[in-house]
Design goal:
The protein has 311 residues and is α/β, with parallel strands linked by helices. It has 10 helices and 8 strands. The protein has a single domain (5-310), classed as Rossmann fold, CATH 3.40.50.
Length: 311
């Protein structure tokens, strides 16, 4: 279908804002410009009963994180959220609205993880941080007000890659059990040669050239994939992974790889639900303030989390 009216209007607004192409900038400038553009003002943020800055034990030292929790009489199930931004940009602030919405709607704790960014810290830094965060939350559950027997992971774009990688790492390392992995338009294939990469290469916020820029910073100029924790779609086996909920967008370069990963999960015997949002673009879930499809996606994710935590 054609782009929906809200997405069209948003793209026009972004074009008028004159933000330079991401891949034309060095990483530090890209962070400054894009983080400022996508950080919501403090005023008007959705209230959550408890929002707390915490640190988690990581392989290279303390990992900053933010804990969101609705009011509760006891320990809450918890989803660890890994923000998008191509492993290079974005942070806890740019994804604050998603985490607040999920905490309130899913009635669970959300731990947003401020993992190390590339190119200063290339793979496996981000994946290692995210897995370490999961292990530490499971270990410290009671102190955090979290039920360590009910954990999930979620992330968008590069964060979807990290959520998929953490699910693989937890399986391979016999780590904490996960009730659900939520993969929101995940980046899982550095080849970037799918039909959707070609069809949606330009004009829909995330560009193909930006994806090459992101992968190059994360994996290095040669984009060598050392193992499946960097590119989950290259895993030899996806068997015995946690239940999955995969979201893709029609006008997204990453559409086909996300859908291919969902198909492989299902073929491997993993209970998997995939939803494609037609008429919209990469990043739409994070723009729920302007896009009804983003609001609906957040509600759907929250519903799947509530169900998964009841199992």
């Amino acid at each position: 279908m054609a782009l929906d009216a809200q997405t069209t209007a948003l793209l026009q607004q972004l074009e008028q804002a004159g933000i330079p192409p991401l891949d034309s900038l060095p990483p530090d400038q890209a962070r400054a410009i894009f983080n400022a553009a996508f950080t919501p003002p403090l005023e008007g943020r959705e209230p959550v009963a408890r929002v707390e800055e915490i640190t988690l034990a990581g392989p290279a030292g303390a990992i900053p994180a933010r804990l969101y929790a609705p009011a509760s009489d006891g320990p809450l199930p918890c989803v660890l959220y890994f923000h998008g931004g191509g492993w290079v940009i974005m942070n806890l602030e740019t994804h604050d609205a998603i985490c607040r919405a999920l905490a309130n709607q899913a009635r669970c704790a959300v731990v947003s993880v401020d993992y190390r960014l590339a190119p200063e810290h290339r793979f496996p830094a981000a994946a290692d941080d995210c897995y370490a965060a999961l292990v530490d939350v499971a270990k410290r559950g009671a102190a955090l007000g979290v039920d360590a027997s009910r954990l999930a992971v979620a992330g968008d774009s590069a964060g979807g890659n990290l959520a998929a990688a953490v699910a693989l790492m937890a399986r391979d390392r016999k780590g904490p059990s996960l009730a659900l992995q939520v993969l929101i338009y995940p980046a899982v294939d550095p080849a970037c040669d799918s039909v959707s990469c070609k069809e949606n290469a330009d004009g829909y916020l995330l560009t193909l050239s930006a994806m090459h820029w992101f992968w190059g910073h994360y994996l290095g100029a040669e984009r060598r994939v050392p193992n499946a924790y960097a590119a989950p779609i290259q895993a030899d086996s996806l068997r015995d992974l946690p239940r999955a909920y995969v979201i893709t967008a029609e006008y997204d370069p990453l559409r086909d790889e996300g859908e291919a990963y969902a198909k492989r999960l299902e073929q491997s015997g993993v209970p998997t639900e995939h939803v494609r949002h037609d008429g919209t673009i990469h990043g739409f879930v994070g723009m729920a303030d302007a896009l009804d499809q983003g609001k609906q996606a957040l509600a759907n994710i929250a519903a799947r989390l509530r169900t998964a935590f009841q199992r």
